[in-house]
Amino acid sequence: MRLFFCISFGVIFLTYDFIEIERKSTVPMYQQLYRSISTAIKNGNLPNGTVLPSIRRLSGDLSLSRTTIESAYQQLCVEGYIINKPQSGYYVNIDVSSNTKKQADPQIPLTNLQIQNRIIYNFGSDSIDSETADVKLWRSYIKDILKKQNKIISYGDPQGEPELRNAISLYSYTVRGVVCSSDTIVIGAGTQPILWLLCGMLRQYGKKAAIEKGGFSKAEQIFRDCNFTVEHISGNDDGIDTDELYRSGAKILFVNPSGNLITGQPMKMNKRYELLYWAEQCGGIIIEDDYNGELRFTSRPIPAMASMDNEKVIYIGSFSKLLLPSVRIGYTVLPQSILNLYQPKAKLYNQTASKTEQLALARYIKERQLDRQLRRLRKTYAEKYRILCEALKNQFGDDIKITLHENSLSLILLLKDAIPDIEEKALSKGLKITCLPVDNSSVCAVRLSFSGIPVNDIIPAVKILKEIYDEREAK
Fold it and tell me: Which own/partner pairs from 108-115 qualify as long-range (CB within 8 Å, at least 24 positions apart)?
């Protein structure tokens, strides 16, 4: 695309043959503009001190939104290619001469927003497939609640809205086998706020919490923020090492029985009884994080550990992958001993989850919409897992090993050769993956979550991953 524009101090016409915008491309247009300008600067086509057109002018000449131009300019400013002089404009800020070596791109850490803007294919666990989100129905429920002024003008019950607690008491029993009354349920804005609340009542068990190695890092952070020492306990094919747990001296155990961190398999019944016996013997308490326990699709979900003992287990459940990740609603079922500590000071807390969303979710559960959504999701995720496995096997053949982690809606891909900086290399190609630490430095373990990536993106995303893998042999 050729662009002509004028610069002040006389009429100077510059020809921009290097700006290429492909409107049908999957690459965001602001990224295309950023790459065109940064490449021209590095090649010396835009000398140091050159005045770039204003955001308004370039927006009009390229028929792009001002937001697109502004995002491209902002990225160029962050990386040091250009500077913004107030009341003057944007200027090229790198001196590149054809007789000198080209400067390397400044190694400035990318912000989360910049990383998100670079992602085309997302194997991360931070989203769900837009096709699985029941947005239209959820929006109608929210609108209906907003019309009921008498319900939304107050702060609400600190323990959570009674309508939702009643609905959850039935749901948790029918889906997860957890027997509880609405009085034992506390609603919170996800696992972290709930865990923070629990930490204030767990000091009778000491200041040491045990969690499996490689466990839920966000839970560990809450424990540390509340001045608890975190003890990492080894795991094996059966689950957490109970002998090591005894030796740790911890009386608080945070665990996810729905999915072992090593194998991805649910914790076996004998291990569950071992942990309950540990709690009985040492006077400890188990916090069961039942993340996505109801979303298993290869077999029927195994009842929660809290269904076996509701006095030694604090149960935590959530709805982020069932509804929308942005709907931050979770809940905990408290044993009577912990409930007795909570109730006297309950009024000193405010709700952390939106009252409007709580009331909408209560209706969503009561009208059996959550049951229907759960059936749809199991079918969808089973199909996405099948397609992903098939694509990986077609591309990699025998060079891989696949382990399903069903509760996290992901699989672990073990590649026979290590690939340094594989996450960064993937991101440079628009692919988001997560590299996992392994004991063997000659192999590479990658987590691929299939919760958010659309079905049609799976095969092209796997092809990009294979390209990165093949590049290791060319070097």
Answer: 108/78, 108/79, 108/80, 114/75, 114/78, 115/427, 115/432
Higher pLDDT, 20 or 367: 367
Q: Which residues pair with 84 in a beta bridge?
A: 90
Distance CA 284, CA 277 (A): 10
User: All domains of the chain, ordered by start, with CATH?
Assistant: 4-109 (1.10.10.10), 154-367 (3.40.640.10), 374-474 (3.90.1150.10)
Strand intervals (E) in 8-105: 12-15, 82-85, 89-92
The helix (H) or strand (E) run that includes residue 470 is: helix 455-474
pLDDT given at position 164: 95
Instruction: Read off the pTM.
Output: 0.71
User: What's the CA gap between 423 and 459, in Å, rounded?
Assistant: 18
Single-letter code of the amino acid located at 31: Q
Least confident of 7-11, 104-108, 170-174, 276-280: 7-11
Q: How far apart are CA 215 and CA 256, in angstroms?
A: 9
| H or E element at residue 229 | strand 229-233
CA separation for the pair 399, 263 (Å, rounded): 19
Q: What is the pLDDT of residues 275-284, one digit of tens each?
A: 999 999 999 9
- Residue closest to 461 by CA, chosen among 446, 475, 473, 439: 446
Return the structure tokens found at 457.
């993106």
Distance CA 421, CA 111 (A): 18
pLDDT at 14: 46
Which tens digit of pLDDT belongs to each residue from 216-265?
888 999 999 999 999 999 887 777 899 999 999 999 999 988 876 666 77
Task: Give the residue among 68, 56, 85, 57 at the shortest CA–CA distance from 32.
Answer: 68
